[in-house]
Write a structure and sequence with these properties.
By secondary structure, the protein is an all-alpha fold. Helices cover 62% and strands 2% of the residues.
């Protein structure tokens, strides 16, 4: 039986996840938008603009969920908040870094949204279904570019793997530690269905298989050091 204390920590955990989800989508939308005029191909410039619009729309529709959990959100633009991943604080340095974010940041956020499809937080469940309808094209774009970069020679493939490893250090910590009492209680209450470790495993297994299909190997280690992780902002900034 869930106690009132467990209900409280579950609600706070869910609120921090939803707030960070919205902030990261707002920031990711801005970063995608910056590539809408400088992507290496016209098709990808159009895709970057479309993904930016999607992410900004997802952010705007997600912030109001916080009110249903009893938290007020004064700023619903997202970019001024501090709950985004540190790697999204500034422009993504190059196209390979942008693809790494498209692969791993987008995947981390989408995996959490997937775990909210049947959430006991009704407002989040409703938005999750809509968000997932639009996220499929983001994954198609990311996978296509991952294959393309892997086939562009060893130097480019190694650069992609390097960028992915750096991105994983931050994106893998978005769900939080697997033994977080708030996450354990939130899963038990049906607020989201996938424990943090399971969310990471789903992203890791997908990406490892994707690169393996191109003859490339990547090692994505389960994060063990949480000393520089802030449970409120869900940022890891050592």
């Amino acid at each position: 039986m869930i106690t009132s204390a467990e209900q409280d920590i579950a609600t706070r955990c869910m609120a921090s996840l939803i707030g960070a989800l919205a902030d990261n989508k707002a920031a990711l939308g801005r970063r995608y938008g910056e590539w809408a005029v400088s992507a290496p191909t016209l098709e990808s410039a159009v895709a970057a603009a479309a993904m930016a619009q999607d992410e900004l729309g997802h952010a705007r529709s997600t912030y109001p969920v916080l009110k249903s959990l009893g938290f007020e959100e004064r700023d619903e633009t997202g970019f001024g908040r501090d709950r985004r991943l540190a790697l999204l604080d500034s422009e993504l340095a190059d196209w390979t870094t942008m693809i790494a974010a498209n692969l791993l940041v987008d995947a981390a956020l989408t995996t959490f949204v997937t775990s909210c499809v049947n959430s006991s937080v009704t407002a989040m469940a409703q938005r999750a279904r809509k968000i997932l309808q639009e996220e499929g094209s983001h994954r198609v774009h990311a996978e296509a570019w991952a294959r393309r970069l892997c086939r562009s020679g060893d130097a480019q493939a190694e650069l992609l793997i390097e960028r992915l490893a750096t991105t994983w250090e931050q994106s893998s910590r978005f769900p939080g530690p697997d033994d977080d009492p708030g996450a354990v209680a939130a899963v038990e209450l049906g607020m989201f269905s996938l424990a943090p470790g399971r969310q990471r495993a789903m992203v890791r297994d997908w990406l490892v298989a994707l690169l393996d299909g191109e003859g490339r190997t990547i090692s994505l280690i389960e994060p063990a050091d949480w000393s520089a992780w802030d449970p409120r902002t869900r940022r890891w900034a050592p």
